Structures are given as C-alpha cells and as structure tokens.
TrEMBL record:
It comes from the Bacteria. Residues 51-165 form the DUF1254 domain. This is DUF1254 domain-containing protein.
C-alpha cells in the first residue's frame, strides 16, 4: 500500500512539474526573442523591415524566401499602441503575438479586409482609438509582424516601401 501512495505522490509531482514547465516556456521564448531583436537593433515602437531572406540573412529556421517581413516590438505598459499598415494588391498580413507567443490578432493587408488600424491596450483601459480602428486588450509586451508576398527583388523593394507608410507607435492623446 505504501508503494501506491509513493506512486501517487510521484505522479502528482510529475504533473505539477510538467504544467509549470509548459507555463514557463512560452514567456521565456518571447523574452529571449525580444532580447535578441533588441541586440540586432530592432527598436521598440518602430517597424523594422528585414532584409530579403537568403541562407545568409535568415535568423530563424526556414523563413519563406518569397515573403518580406517587418517587425515591431511594443509594450502596452507604456500606454496604448497604434498599429497601421496599408493594403496592397498582393498577399499581406499583420499578426500580433503576446508575451506568451500566442497569436492574438491577424488582419489581411491585401485589400480584401477593411483594416483601418489596431489599438493595443492594457486590460481595463479604454483608449481613444482612431475612427475605424479595432482595439485589443492584452497585458505587457508583444510583437507585431507584417508579411507581404515578395518573390523577387522589385516586389521586396515595394513591400519595404509600404513599411515606411506603416505605424507602430504609442497612441498619443488628442490635444
């Protein structure tokens, strides 16, 4: 009977350890990703376009060489964040990832959706969003990612030009 109690305690501890690890890993992954991006010069509250993906420029495993990428790091602890990105006539998407690596928002940027911006804010806040913009409550820091179809150098240059027309900034209150 003692071995049954010991087995039950062992299984309970294994389950608790397993759940603790599963809850800790996503936050650790995102914290490491944020740190690595900061070290590479990816600013907070600013879109940063990646160079065209080649075996020499890739920093993640198997990025698509047919896509142009732009990243923005943000933290809603500093206040609400406004994200905008213009539509184009080819595939494009904007994704937002929270501090636990969950994909919490996605919008099409190919003209099929009517994306007019996103205001990300801390839970419990009620920010003044620009007209037509969606709102999303999430705690802490996160990443926004724009992907656009760019199978060749001219398409990549066009996608990079669209990054310059995009916004990732703290939402300023109207004067």
């Amino acid at each position: 009977m003692r071995w049954l109690a010991a087995a039950a305690v062992f299984l309970l501890m294994a389950l608790i350890g397993h759940l603790a690890v599963l809850n800790a890993i996503p936050s650790r992954i995102m914290a490491t990703a944020q740190l690595k991006m900061a070290e590479r010069g990816v600013e907070t509250y600013q879109w940063t376009a990646s160079p065209r993906m080649t075996p020499q420029t890739q920093t993640i495993v198997r990025p698509s060489p047919d896509l142009a990428y732009a990243l923005c790091r943000f933290d809603v602890s500093d206040g609400p964040v406004l994200l905008t990105a213009p539509a184009s006539d080819t595939y494009g998407s904007l994704s937002v990832f929270d501090q636990r690596t969950n994909n919490v928002f996605i919008a099409r940027l190919d003209g099929e959706d009517d994306f007019r911006g996103l205001v990300i804010h801390a839970p419990g806040e009620k920010p003044d969003a620009p007209e037509g913009a969606e709102t999303l409550a999430m705690p802490g820091s996160g990443l926004a990612l724009i992907r656009r179809l760019a199978p060749d150098e001219p398409a990549h240059a066009a996608a990079t030009a669209l990054v310059e027309q995009s916004t990732c900034s703290l939402l300023r209150a109207a004067p």
